[in-house]
Amino acid sequence: MLVTNKQILDAADKGGYAVGAFNVNNMEILQAVIAAAEEERSPVIIQTSEGAIKYAGADYLSALVHLAAQKASVPVSLHLDHGTTYETIITCIANGWTSVMIDGSHHPLEENIKVTSEIIKIAHAAGISVEAELGRLGGVEDNISVDEKDARFTDPKEAVRFVEETGVDSLAIAIGTAHGKYKGIPKLDHERLDTIKKLVKIPIVLHGASGVGEDEIIKAVKLGVNKINIDTDVRVAFTEGVQAVFAKNPDEFDPRKICGPARDKMKEVVKAKMRLFGCSGKA
Length: 283
Ligand code: G3H
Ligand code: 13P
Ligand code: ZN
Known about the structure:
Elements: E1 2-3, H1 5-15, E2 19-23, H2 27-40, E3 44-49, H3 50-56, H4 58-71, E4 76-83, H5 86-94, E5 99-102, H6 109-125, E6 129-134, H7 146-152, H8 156-166, E7 170-173, H9 190-200, E8 204-206, H10 214-222, E9 225-230, H11 232-248, H12 255-277
Bound molecules: glyceraldehyde-3-phosphate, 1,3-dihydroxyacetonephosphate and zinc ion.
């Protein structure tokens, strides 16, 4: 069944677990994520970046996810990841997305509040939930200095003001994660997360969670993270699946025999994430 992020995340917040949000760009990734959710009896967030929409088309992605959600016996939401323009957000609302992220994190606080509030007015009127971001995620560099941390990581006082003034449904925060493949070992600022969660009391979102250690994730979930974004780990599973096919048979040319094993590998990765995040069995 198709639901909003708010429905999924408010339940997660109450229940003290996190739900996986997986980036989807094609049919095989979507089928892998949905099959994993069914097998784990987990709610799931399917998210598409602006790049995914450019690659596959909003209409194709929408049709695929609506069909998948209609057939699924677990709650499924369709979320725009890192929306940056009115154009994309309106396209998503018009094409049946049930949640959007407006990423104004590169703006100064006032401007971020302004752009986020404008999107919320439109999205809430359409019954769609909104995620916003405050603070800046790092690159994949090894070490961040203390000064840099304070400049980039989410400021708890700013988070309170941001949530109060915008009325946003969920908030992505910067506490030490980065998008893509890490070069070093990511360490999360759990203390900052704890402070923010106690102050804002809405579902907290963790981006860049691929490659973050299991203990770090478990602690973050305990402290109030309710949505965990995974893209890179699924991309890697896809690629390893394809590479394994060619290692065995370099002459293979049937796309089904290339993408099928990759889909199986992605499903196993997603299932493991669901168990780690605590959303298995929550559907
Ligand atoms: O946070 C970014 C996501 O991993 C999406 O990446 O823009 O390459 O689709 P993408
Ligand atoms: P990773 O690719 O690092 O898993 O990040 C995903 C993400 O945050 C999507 O918004
Ligand atoms: Zn992200």
